[in-house]
Design brief:
There is one protein chain. The protein is mostly helical and 155 residues long. The chain has one domain. 56% of the residues lie in helices and 0% in strands. It has seven helices and no strands. Helix 4 runs antiparallel to helix 5.
């Protein structure tokens, strides 16, 4: 019996997952959009010369959250200054290659027609949240001054 005949008779038809290079476009487009946005920000302004008050946590409490300095770190990385990028936000610079590899794995799995959970497991998610919280706490302690973001605005 053909697939169309099975569907007319109300029988369940197992659908094979679609595969092919077109299925890899979503993760590749997400990655490319991130790169284009970062390059656009790079061209529009220099966060080391312009104050960018984006962090509500820092504005309200004076504490540095895990994301403070992220724009400056990506800007420094795109300018080729890895040490300044790490000094601005080491967590973001460390996470960028991991995100890139994750998007690449997702694209390959989609192209092969394999199912991929976009959300990490509960254990991985808790570990990532723990790392972010630990980073936030450490960068606000005086003995870990080197983790605090730098700002050369007005210098």
């Amino acid at each position: 019996m053909t697939t169309a005949a099975r569907e007319r008779h109300g029988e369940a038809v197992p659908h094979a997952p679609a595969h092919g290079p077109r299925r890899a476009l979503l993760p590749l487009a997400i990655g490319a959009t991130g790169v284009v946005l970062a390059l656009g920000v790079q061209l529009v302004f220099d966060p080391f010369r312009t104050h960018v008050p984006l962090c509500l946590v820092h504005q309200l409490t004076g504490l540095d959250c895990p994301g403070c300095g992220a724009i400056r770190s990506v800007h420094a990385l795109l300018a080729g200054d890895l040490m300044l990028a790490l000094r601005s936000n080491a967590l973001v610079i460390t996470a960028l290659p991991l995100v890139g590899v994750g998007l690449l794995v997702w694209a390959v799995r989609r192209a092969r027609g394999l199912r991929t959970d976009v959300m990490p497991s509960r254990t991985v998610l808790l570990a990532l949240v723990g790392i972010a919280v630990l980073y936030a706490v450490l960068r606000n302690l005086p003995m870990f001054w080197f983790l605090a973001p730098v700002s050369y605005v007005g210098a």
